[in-house]
Amino acid sequence: MTRAAADVRRAVEGDLAAIAALEACAFPGLSYPYFVLRQLFDVHSHLMLVTAGAEGLRGYVLLAGDGGGQSWLLSLAVHRSHRRQGHGRRLLDAVLGLADDRGLGAVRLSVEPDNHPALRLYHAAGFCLVERRPGYLGSGHDRLLMAREAPRRTPCSPGG
């Protein structure tokens, strides 16, 4: 991970209860239940990252990708008491770095249209609006779909 992501680490099984609690607070009514997080961890733990301190979990991010040219940022949440301290940016930078290093392709996400802090974060990280989807997560839950294209790889020089 990059120097900016020094306090970011891979999630471990013991983080799941705290991640589920953070999900429930950050996304009331739309959070992943524990059993889903458990299964997502089993499949994508290499792309589930957290920031944590002595007081506990500060934030987490989850990316799903299989190298098929597209991946999805499934969740990014920071505990309310730790917002506006750079945790979201460090988590996003770290997981996008993993996606790039593993050649996972474009990264897509959905975000609530009125979540202006998240929109600023995603725009700053190179995400662009793809479309607005009314009812994307069910009735009354509109979302903006955004994408960040995979970085272009510099071709190798002859002989190298």
Automatic annotation (TrEMBL):
CDD domains with a match to the protein in the record: NAT_SF
Name of the top EC class for this enzyme: transferase
GO MF: acyltransferase activity
Gene3D superfamilies in the record: 3.40.630.30
A Pfam family: Acetyltransf_1
Coiled-coil spans in chain: none
Keywords: Acyltransferase, Transferase
SUPFAM superfamilies in the record: Acyl-CoA N-acyltransferases (Nat) (SSF55729)
InterPro entries (UniProt xref): Acyl_CoA_acyltransferase, GNAT_dom, YpeA/RimI_acetyltransf
EC number from the UniProt entry: 2.3.1.-
Domain N-acetyltransferase residues, every copy: 6-151
Protein name, entry field: N-acetyltransferase
